[in-house]
Amino acid sequence: MKDSLNWQIMRFNELSLEQLYQIMALRSEVFVVEQNCIYQDLDNKDQDALHVCGFYKGKLVAYCRIFRPGYYFEDAAIGRVIVAKECRSFKIGHVLMQKSIATVLELFDTSSIMISAQVYLLKFYQSHGFLVVGEEYLEDGIPHVQMKR
Predict the structure, then answer these.
(1) CA-based Rg of the chain, rounded to a whole angstrom?
(2) For the whole prediction, is pTM greater than 0.70?
(3) Which CATH class name applies to 2-111?
């Protein structure tokens, strides 16, 4: 499956209404419903992000957003990393992170990237070169930690 994905990296104004709807639906499905976390996902940051989207047969199955250095953190940032539940066994998250890191390197000419990681995903992010740089904290009731690459 992961070799059959159509990857697109788009600015907010390049997203079609259908793509934007799929992004919001997937984020709500996982971050709100699956994780049982009531929080305000729409944070007025999507307009300034690059959106990394992995589509399988026209359906969004992998997504994250990227920010230039100085916007979210001092370093570039990757956030809202998500893979549809039915696709997680295909290791698409690793491809998503590889593409996102490569995009940061190419577009922002930096290798310094910060993330706010859910603690249960530490090993996943460590496998992509991220190291814990702070104490654990709660974000929307879920344990997180800042990590830097």
Answers:
(1) 14
(2) yes
(3) alpha beta
